[in-house]
């Protein structure tokens, strides 16, 4: 049995331009899992990720003669996926899970030195300060002091259900006030990975 020939990305692109469908299949096989993981990290929707990747490879095939990949194929595909994920998010409403993930990143220590963190943190603080007093207090105890619902309830002498209601109200207010900015922050974090 002959040894399997492994082609470089440049060779795969050259073959793609010569209408070699096996080159497209090889690129797909080589990069599909990585692209899916990257898209899923942001979208958390398997079907949407599969659709985005399928569209990307259809475009790759349809535009094969015009391909001008001046950097690596991997970088080109990642940039294309990031663009498509961004487009997918922009065309739909701000999803709660994406919003909440971005909000959690704001309060993570590894983000503290970035300019994006500082700008977003300032924006979040100003919006939190407009919340009703009890709601603001619950939010700060949860996000800034990292207390559990039970600990907040005990400290404020309210029920855990009331804590949950205040947090839901605070997050809903934040989501509608700065949803777009948080989506951009999430995409920034996605691009850095």
From the coordinates shown, what is the CATH architecture of the largest domain? Answer: Orthogonal Bundle
What proportion of the residues form beta strands (DSSP E)?
under 5%
**Number of DSSP strands?**
0
Shape: elongated
Taken together, the total number of domains comes to 2
Rounded to the nearest angstrom, the radius of gyration is 22 Å
Measure the end-to-end span: 40 Å
CATH homologous superfamily assignment of the largest domain? Winged helix-like DNA-binding domain superfamily/Winged helix DNA-binding domain
Structural class: mainly alpha
Number of helices: 9
Poorly predicted spans: 109-113, 183-193
Class of the largest domain, according to the CATH hierarchy? Answer: Mainly Alpha
Helix share of residues? Answer: over 70%
Q: Biggest sheet, in brief?
A: none
N-to-C order of helices and strands:
HHHHHHHHH
- CATH topology (fold) name of the largest domain: Arc Repressor Mutant, subunit A
Q: What value does the average pLDDT take? A: 77
Structure, described:
With 193 residues, this protein is mostly helical. It has 2 domains: 9-91, Orthogonal Bundle (Rna Polymerase Sigma Factor, Chain: A); 96-192, Arc Repressor Mutant, subunit A. It contains 9 helices and no strands. The longest helix has 33 residues, at 160-192. The radius of gyration is 22 Å and the shape is elongated.
């Amino acid at each position: 049995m002959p040894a399997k020939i492994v082609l470089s990305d440049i060779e795969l692109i050259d073959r793609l331009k010569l209408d070699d469908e096996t080159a497209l299949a090889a690129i797909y096989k080589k990069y599909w899992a990585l692209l899916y993981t990257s898209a899923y990290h942001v979208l958390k929707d398997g079907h949407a990720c599969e659709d985005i990747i399928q569209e990307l490879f259809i475009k790759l095939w349809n535009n094969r003669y015009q391909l001008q990949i001046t950097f690596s194929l991997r970088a080109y595909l990642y940039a294309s996926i990031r663009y498509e994920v961004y487009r997918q998010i922009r065309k739909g409403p701000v999803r709660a899970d994406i919003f909440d993930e971005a909000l959690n990143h704001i309060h993570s220590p590894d983000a503290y030195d970035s300019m994006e963190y500082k700008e977003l943190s300032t924006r979040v603080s100003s919006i939190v300060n407009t919340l009703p007093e009890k709601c603001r207090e619950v939010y700060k105890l949860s996000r800034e002091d990292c207390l559990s619902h039970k600990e907040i309830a005990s400290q404020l002498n309210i029920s855990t259900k009331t804590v949950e209601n205040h947090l839901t109200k605070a997050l809903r207010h934040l989501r509608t006030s700065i949803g777009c900015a948080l989506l951009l922050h999430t995409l920034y974090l996605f691009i850095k990975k």
